[in-house]
């Protein structure tokens, strides 16, 4: 083989060129790639190859998203509620209220969301209100363009804390929140507060006479074991300890007359709650559920995969918060999904085996419009009672179970009257009023049933008052509604849980001539007269016409 043949062979084998003296020649990456045998070289083959590669990449991405998605199947929320014991109202009534700090994680540009929260579930729970359950917003250092607005918001509401750190979600913000709470959190002692400050937004309040026992679970390597004997003993010890602690608190936990002239004493919070700003928290329910727990070594929330409490909202007793803030392990492990990280911290606690992991799976869920595995309709005790009755064998036929599971009987325990699994939420009927739209989001309500459900004989609950929905008790229902991504969903949730619907009349559809009149609304001479009579006016425009819907607490005249 002569020199030229050897040079050509080496060039083909190594993908490089040689000059006449067998020195290597520099070749561009493009020319090197084009020398490969199976690489497309003309524009048509390059186009087809690019399209094929994009299709492969998209298919691989979709497959990995499906394979790694832990939420492929709906969760059996009906089973969760059937397994949940009734709330121990008598025990809660016998105990004094606990002090709670709710820290809502926010960012500098979310001022509108913070205002929505202030207007809804936190409207009586700011530090300036002086209640024993307080809601405070936490953000990191704000950008320069929003700094003045943040300072104004702090001065106006007094419920916004700026942490000295860069904004992040899973890189230390939760630790800094607990660190702040361990040093600066002081809540008014309920024993020194007037009775009107020991209350929460609610449209209904009544004494109750129901009691039961609560399940507390502890994690181990194999999952969660329910140790009933130990739980009863722990509950009895916790009950006695609560009474002792409430009546004989450590004086070091108080600042006597912290507010001069009021006589109100301040103490460390019994529990610290980390919450997201897309969670709606019924503070009264939260306080009563935490009130019946021991005040030490408690980790409360929605248990996910027997591993950690969901990050939408979880509570820690104050002793755990102090340990997190002072421990070297937690300080050195701040990077990662914050809810997973908190559970990891708990497992490194020196008394990890004694920590009470308390899960609430029935009364914590996602907003029904979000169509996630954690979503279903708004839950009230009256509907949960019906769900528990279905746990009796034979109460639901096999055909009905298959229908509920959309062809899969195993999914029947995830059945919801509000939305169908895997589909976006659709209103059951058209032309619903505002109140009826909210009523259609209530699990088991007659307004939530579409024509297909009624065709199969499904019977919904008629419009109920708040007393009927809560079965004659002031509390005992939903604690947290999560994944509320729109402001109007916040108002829907507030209307569902903080309003007595018995005071709101049923609305009529558009076709009802007794309720709907076509008029020039802007020049209607009867406007002032209608307002004086107490009518609520709602305008719906349709092109050049304006339809005016009139309702009142009294039946609208039919003549």
From TrEMBL:
Transmembrane segments: 46-68
Entry GO CC: Golgi membrane
Keywords assigned by UniProt, alphabetized: Glycosyltransferase, Golgi apparatus, Membrane, Signal-anchor, Transferase, Transmembrane, Transmembrane helix
Subcellular location: Golgi apparatus membrane
Membrane-topology descriptor: Single-pass type II membrane protein
Protein name: Hexosyltransferase
Example of a GO biological process term: 4,6-pyruvylated galactose residue biosynthetic process
Main location: Golgi
Domain of life: Eukaryota
Molecular-function GO term, any one: hexosyltransferase activity
UniProt record similarity statement: Belongs to the glycosyltransferase 31 family.
């Amino acid at each position: 083989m002569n020199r030229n043949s050897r040079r050509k062979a080496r060039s083909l084998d190594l993908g490089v060129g040689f000059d006449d003296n067998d020195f290597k020649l520099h070749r561009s990456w493009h020319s090197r790639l084009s020398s490969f045998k199976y690489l497309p070289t003309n524009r048509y083959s390059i186009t087809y190859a690019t399209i094929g590669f994009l299709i492969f990449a998209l298919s691989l991405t979709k497959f990995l998203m499906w394979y790694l998605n832990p939420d492929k199947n709906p969760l059996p929320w009906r089973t969760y509620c059937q397994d949940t014991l009734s709330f121990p109202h008598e025990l809660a009534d016998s105990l004094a209220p606990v002090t709670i700090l709710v820290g809502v994680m926010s960012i500098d540009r979310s001022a509108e969301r913070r205002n929505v929260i202030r207007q809804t579930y936190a409207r009586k729970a700011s530090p300036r209100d002086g209640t024993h359950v307080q809601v405070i917003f936490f953000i990191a250092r704000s950008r320069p363009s929003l700094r003045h607005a943040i300072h104004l918001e702090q001065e106006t509401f007094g419920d916004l804390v700026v942490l000295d750190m860069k904004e992040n979600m899973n890189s230390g913000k939760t630790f800094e929140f607990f660190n702040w709470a361990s040093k600066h959190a002081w809540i008014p002692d309920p024993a020194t507060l007037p009775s009107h400050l020991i209350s929460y937004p609610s449209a209904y309040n009544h004494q109750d006479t129901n009691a039961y026992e609560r399940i507390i679970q502890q994690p181990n390597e194999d999952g969660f074991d329910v140790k009933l004997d130990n739980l009863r003993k722990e509950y009895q010890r916790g009950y006695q300890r609560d009474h002792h602690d409430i009546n004989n608190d450590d004086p070091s936990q108080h600042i006597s007359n912290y507010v001069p002239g009021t006589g109100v004493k301040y103490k460390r919070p019994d529990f610290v709650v980390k919450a997201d700003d897309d969670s709606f928290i019924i503070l009264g329910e939260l306080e009563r559920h935490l009130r019946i727990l021991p005040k030490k070594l408690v980790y409360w929330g929605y248990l996910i995969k027997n591993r950690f409490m969901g990050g939408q909202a979880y509570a820690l007793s104050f002793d755990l918060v102090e340990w997190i803030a002072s421990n070297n392990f937690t300080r050195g492990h701040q990077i990662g999904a914050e809810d997973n990280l908190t559970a990891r911290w708990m497992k490194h606690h020196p008394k990890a085996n004694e920590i009470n992991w308390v899960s609430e799976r029935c009364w914590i869920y996602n907003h029904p419009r979000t169509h996630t595995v954690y979503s279903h309709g708004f839950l009230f005790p009256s509907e949960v009672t019906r769900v528990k009755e279905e746990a009796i064998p034979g109460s639901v036929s096999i055909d009905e179970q298959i229908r509920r599971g959309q062809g899969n009987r195993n999914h029947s325990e995830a059945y919801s009257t509000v939305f169908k699994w895997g589909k976006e939420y659709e209103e059951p009927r058209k032309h619903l009023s505002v109140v009826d739209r909210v009523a259609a989001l209530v699990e088991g309500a007659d307004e939530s049933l579409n024509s297909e459900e009624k065709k199969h004989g499904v019977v919904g609950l008629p419009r109920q008052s708040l007393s009927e929905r809560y079965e004659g008790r002031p509390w005992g229902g939903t604690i947290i509604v999560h994944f509320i991504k729109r402001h109007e969903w916040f108002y829907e949730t507030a209307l569902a849980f903080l309003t007595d619907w018995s005071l709101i009349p049923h609305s009529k559809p558009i076709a009802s001539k007794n309720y709907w009149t076509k008029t020039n609304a802007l020049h209607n001479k009867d406007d002032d007269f209608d307002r004086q009579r107490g009518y609520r006016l709602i305008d719906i425009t349709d092109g050049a016409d304006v339809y005016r819907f009139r309702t009142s607490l009294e039946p609208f005249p039919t003549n």
